[in-house]
UniProtKB/TrEMBL annotation, chain A:
InterPro entries: IorB_Oxidoreductase (IPR052198), Pyrv/ketoisovalerate_OxRed_cat (IPR019752), Pyrv_flavodox_OxRed_cen (IPR002869). GO terms for molecular function: indolepyruvate ferredoxin oxidoreductase activity. Keywords: Oxidoreductase, Pyruvate. PANTHER family: INDOLEPYRUVATE OXIDOREDUCTASE SUBUNIT IORB (PTHR43854). This is Indolepyruvate ferredoxin oxidoreductase. Its EC number is 1.2.7.8. Residues 13-188 form the Pyruvate/ketoisovalerate oxidoreductase catalytic domain. It comes from Methanoregula boonei (strain DSM 21154 / JCM 14090 / 6A8).
Length: 194, 590
């Protein structure tokens, strides 16, 4: 329906999906392109599953329809699987290869999936798996995982890397610009160019 | 013009600055809270701003400001409008001189709410105009229109963004900030402002006489508009209009409703030009009922004949399904794949180290599973997951429902939980009533000194105003004693021994017993630099009994039949006090 590029970013409340959304939105502004987005705020953020929709060149509403996302970025393995039905056939997937076990596993005896099992289930989407925690630590800021993941995903996003990096520099705290710049570049170097 | 990537609420707040705002009040409530949060962060603002103790208080304050000729905005969530309904209904009679915009944010799908009520129904009930934006830019632009309309018709204007406007983002063109230059002054006019029967009968007539011109004006302003493209038509309102525009075939006429009341004559003209009409709107069938009244024999498709849902929120996928069913679209362009089934859920959860968890644990330990636990609206509603929340209905209803239970079900102990902000919002009256009428019950005030769930707004308990001015914090102990309670104990819920002892004391006594479980919100503690150190499990001592795991803290995991504490630990030490074999202690940094 839409000629734009739809990105769904998912993760766990507190992981920085909103900063990632702001970076993408700011990069669109730098290129003079319209953009729409939708976010999770309020109580749902308290450690719960969160989703952020970004529609580059979006003209209408902010929501992406399941089965139509061009790119799924996930900060957590389990959340990638939970939202995988949003991806269109042939859509790209960039996933942090790390899982936070939901507390429901311990308190409600929910079934446990191992990281390897999830990776196996995700294989049909040919995901780009990334150890964002390690790269962020190497970049000098363990909090920069979201910027690492954006760097990895930047190969699949129809925005110039300069626009994305410019947005990163504008939006992160001034003291962390250097570490976040490194995080973005290391992420981009670790990403796939297809 | 320079564009900004903004949250709907940020765009609305900026539009207030562009409108020469003179007075801001509100009570926090998702999805409305960021409007006041943005405005209160302004440096040296040329306007007055407060977080009020509840929505009725907020609206009455803002109404007075508008009577003084200032432009005022009052913000709340949809259910807050129920609390403010009393002044709302009669403010339509008294009217205003300065513009008054009442922002009441609806929450289709109840993302963070107890119901899915529709603010547009209040507008109809009160005979007030209501603006209903379809996107972030439009929400921004409508604020200025709302103030102008309020001053033109001397009526408060309801402004109704939904969650998908408030918490959506878009590239927004902003206007220039216009500082408030008005000096507020109240001009006495008892016939306008004293609603004794003799005055109010005349005011009611005046309100009704404003309606025809108001309806016409909303069309002239382009808030309600259409394009004719064929023999069939879709009429849509709010964000539903954006979803329809993404899907609309070129030969179908389109009417967009952005404001109420709708001009029936104008609507009827449009209806008569078509052979069938589909109405797309979220929540109540407000537009649909208006269309049905004027459509004559033109078939109308909508909620009332089962084509669209009354509940939940719309999405492009849902709208496409409705359009196919009603014959406005040949096939659904979306495949609607199913999610992967049976994945472990990840619902929101009380933070690691949240003191509410400790208070719930202690209450359950002392009063057991058969006691009745009425609770309230706040982060602590998540105590449901701990089996310590049996009822939640609306703000302040823990104590009142609790006293009702105490008088109706003498077989079970009643233990209420209510947060400090909620207690100050509408809890005090319930406590006074319970003491006055001799209820037997325990009330636990979960006191974290802040309105946490909506984003840590200060309240009279915090010791600071919305704009950061220090103010004497209210004494919850003194308030409870003034309500007549004689058993009022303040305890640190991290001190599990003390907490259990106070609860045992309360259980043994008759009357209304109040326990103030006081500790800083862990998020505030982290932000203000409180460092307590992490705890760790000694695997050689741990027996894997699961006591700490059942406590439900997200920092505690069970790995290979032993407990393990992860990096989320905030150092509250409650698990160390619960462990029956003493396996948990402060981590020693090597």
């Amino acid at each position: 329906m839409s000629a734009g590029f739809d990105i769904l970013i998912v993760g766990i409340g507190g992981q920085g999906t909103i900063l990632a959304s702001n970076i993408l939105g700011e990069a669109c502004l730098r290129e003079g392109r319209p953009v729409k987005g939708a976010e999770t705020h309020g109580m749902a953020q308290r450690g719960g599953s969160v989703e952020t929709h970004i529609r580059i060149d979006g003209q209408y509403g902010p929501l992406i329809v399941p089965g139509t996302a061009d790119l799924l970025i996930s900060f957590d393995l389990l959340e990638a699987l939970r939202y995988s039905h949003y991806l269109k056939a042939g859509g790209k997937m960039v996933v942090n290869r790390h899982m936070v076990l939901p507390t429901s596993v311990f308190t409600q005896k929910a079934p446990v999936l191992t990281e390897d099992e999830i990776v196996g289930q995700l294989a049909r989407f040919d995901p780009c798996l990334i150890d964002a925690d390690r790269i962020a630590a190497e970049s000098g800021s363990i909090l920069a995982q979201n910027v690492v993941i954006l760097g990895v995903a930047s190969w699949s996003i129809p925005l110039k890397p300069e626009s994305l990096l410019g947005a990163v520099k504008k939006l992160v705290p001034p003291k962390t610009i250097e570490a976040n710049t490194r995080a973005f570049e290391m992420g981009r170097a670790a990403g796939r160019k297809n | 013009m320079e564009r900004h990537y903004l949250l709907g609420n940020e765009a609305i707040a900026h539009a207030c600055l562009e409108s020469g705002i003179g007075f801001v009040s509100g009570y926090p409530g998702t999805p409305s809270s960021e409007v006041v949060d943005v405005l209160r962060a302004q440096k040296d603002p040329p306007f007055y701003l407060e977080w009020s103790v509840n929505e009725k208080v907020a609206l009455e304050n803002a109404l007075a400001a508008a009577w003084c000729g200032l432009r005022a905005i009052c913000t709340m969530k949809h259910v807050g409008l129920n609390v403010a309904a009393d002044p709302l209904m009669t403010s339509a009679y008294t009217g205003v001189t300065g513009g008054l915009v009442i922002l009441s944010a609806d929450d289709p799908f109840a993302h963070s709410s107890q119901n899915e009520q529709d603010t547009r129904c209040y507008a109809h009930f009160a005979r007030l105009p209501c603006l209903d934006p379809a996107g972030v830019q439009e929400a921004h632009d409508m604020v200025g229109t709302a103030f102008a309309l309020s001053e033109e018709f001397h009526l408060p204007v309801l402004f109704r963004p939904t969650t998908r406007i408030c918490h959506s983002k878009g590239d927004v063109a902003l206007g220039a900030v216009v500082p408030n230059e008005r000096k507020g002054e109240f001009h006495k006019d008892p016939r306008q402002y004293v609603v004794i029967p003799a005055h109010t009968r005349i005011l009611h007539k005046k309100l009704n006489e404003k309606q025809p011109a108001l309806k016409k004006r909303l069309v002239e302003l382009g808030l309600n508009a259409y394009t004719i493209s064929g023999k069939t038509a879709v009429i849509a309102s709010g964000i539903g209009a954006a979803y329809v525009q993404e899907l609309l075939p070129p030969n179908v006429s389109f009417m967009k409703i952005g404001a109420y009341p709708i001009d029936e004559a104008w609507l009827g003209e449009f209806a008569k030009k078509h052979e069938k009409i589909l109405v797309i709107e979220e929540l109540a069938p407000v537009v649909e009922e208006a269309v049905r009244q004027v459509a004559g024999c033109v078939p109308v498709f909508g909620k009332i004949n089962g084509y669209a849902p009354y509940e939940g929120e719309l999405s492009p996928g849902v709208v496409a399904g409705i359009m196919v069913k009603a014959g406005f679209l040949e096939k659904n362009p979306f495949a609607a794949p199913s999610p992967v089934p049976d994945l472990p859920l990840r619902p929101p959860i009380l933070c690691a180290g949240c003191h509410h968890r400790a208070a719930f644990y202690a209450a359950k330990k002392v009063f057991g599973p058969t006691a009745v636990y009425p609770s309230d609206i706040g982060c602590y509603t998540l105590g449901l997951q701990l089996g310590a929340v049996d009822t939640t209905i609306c703000m302040g209803a823990s104590i009142t429902v609790g006293s009702g239970f105490a008088h109706s079900d003498p077989l079970h102990d009643v233990v209420c939980t209510i947060g400090d902000s909620t207690f100050l919002h509408t809890g005090i009256q319930g406590l006074m009533n319970a003491v006055y009428n001799g209820a037997n019950m325990t009330v636990i005030i979960l006191d974290n000194r802040i309105t946490a769930m909506t984003g840590h707004q200060p309240n009279p308990n915090t010791g600071v105003t919305a704009t950061g001015v220090e103010t004497p914090p209210v004494s919850l102990d003194a308030v409870c004693r003034a309500c007549g309670a004689t058993f009022v104990e303040t305890v640190d819920p991290y001190d599990m021994t003390g907490m259990l002892r106070v609860l045992e004391d309360a259980k043994a006594k008759k009357g209304v017993k109040v326990i103030i479980a006081k500790q800083m919100c862990v998020i505030v503690a982290r932000r203000t630099g409180v460092k307590r150190g992490r705890y760790a499990v000694n695997p050689e001592i741990c027996t894997g009994c699961g006591t700490c795991v059942r406590f439900g803290c997200p920092a505690i995991e069970l790995v290979d039949k032993k407990a393990r504490i992860n990096e989320l630990c905030s150092g509250c030490a409650v698990c160390a006090r619960l462990c029956p074999v003493g396996a948990i202690s402060l981590e020693v940094r090597r």
